Amino acid sequence: MTSLHDIPSVTYSADYQALANKYRPIFEQIAQGTVQREQQRILPFEQIQWLKQAGFGAVRIPVEHGGDGASIPQLFQLLIELSKADSNVTQALRGHFAFVEDRLNAQRDSDQSHWFKRFVAGEIAGNAWTEIGTVKIGDVITKVTHHGDQWLVSGQKYYTTGSIFAEWFDLFAQIEETGELVIAATRTQQEGVTIKDDWDGFGQRTTGSGTTTLVNARVEEVIPFDTRFKYQTAFYQLFHLATLTGIAQAAVEEFKQQVRQRTRIFSHGNGDRVDQDVQVLQVIGKASAQAYAAEAITIQAAQASQRAYQIHFAQDDTQAEKELNILAEIESAQGQVVIADLVLQLTSNLFNALSASAASSEKSLDRFWRNARTVSSHNPLIYKEKSIGDWEVNGTEPIYAWQIGGGSKETEQLSSS
């Protein structure tokens, strides 16, 4: 069994400081309206448009195709910074960057320059995988059918995160005539497509994660699902790690500012000023350390996916590629288990640095915990812990993708949740 210590260090094709300098002004602009959007549930259409215009959706596209040429760790470092500004925006882009990653991997075997041009021009994709209601595990209600020389798709998807902001769906479906599972690359703005902003979660409320209904919508390209990039589940999970890390950093920043500004003290406290109270400083210090650990773990886990990406192009060694994909999945799962606990703990314990005034709706300090709790509810931790343990003890290969639904478990598992 390959160990992560046996894999050479990751190399980067872009300069991170240059990337950060390009996008940080936009992140800072996005951050200015985060609380208002949170309080009034305003979707970040304008903010995502700023990112499109700046070329952020093409940050992973090679320089020779007009992108920034960022590595996977560099992408997720940027996403941590974006999540600190507004974690909802990062999650809204999750489906896009997964589709980009798939097209990057597909470039090894077929020309994907038509997609690269679209991404460089500012077009993005949204997620459209999950089905709800009476769907049984193993069933796919969304069907692609052939009408003359045109593919059409009909069905309904929920949790279509980011699609309301996007030009494309990364749409999981089944060819009705053959039963083949496919990705139907479908334009969002066309007759037969309805996207609703009806996500009712208590956190991550402005991610555009609503219901999409498709009735004979035209499909631009049908992509066999079995060609999907192999480390996709790890990649999807890295988004949650980066989002949680950004939430943690934003929470520490906000609470330390609140401590600096606070003038009222308790008679049984430890100083004449809150910013000199040793126990309050301890609360901030621990939270800061937890946020630091979350960032370090996220970037370490991202390196595992980078190695899986590199070997896909580097050599024709099926076993080595399989082992690196296993490590990418395991490391992302390990990161999830630890980071979720760290961030949920710190976003709750930070309230110990303040008093009852911290519960003010005007301050919206509860948003950090609510958003972290919502993100942490994706891909249940208990199953990740079991998967890691089964790999450690028995060498059992992890499940890379799955499905949620009713009925028995006797099926293939598929989901981007």
Automatic annotation (TrEMBL):
Q: Could you confirm whether the keyword Signal appears in this record? A: no
- Keywords linked to the UniProt accession: Monooxygenase, Oxidoreductase
Q: Does the keyword Oxidoreductase apply?
A: yes
The UniProt record lists the Acyl-CoA dehydrogenase C-terminal domain at 240-379
Instruction: Please state every residue range assigned to the domain named Acyl-CoA dehydrogenase/oxidase N-terminal.
Output: 28-101
Listed GO MF terms? monooxygenase activity
Q: Which InterPro entries did the record assign?
A: Acyl-CoA_DH_C, Acyl-CoA_Oxase/DH_mid-dom_sf, AcylCo_DH-like_C, AcylCoA_DH/ox_N, AcylCoA_DH/ox_N_sf, AcylCoA_DH/oxidase_NM_dom_sf
**SUPFAM superfamilies associated with the record:** Acyl-CoA dehydrogenase C-terminal domain-like (SSF47203), Acyl-CoA dehydrogenase NM domain-like (SSF56645)
Mind telling me what this protein is named?
Monooxygenase
**Source species of the chain:** Acinetobacter thutiue
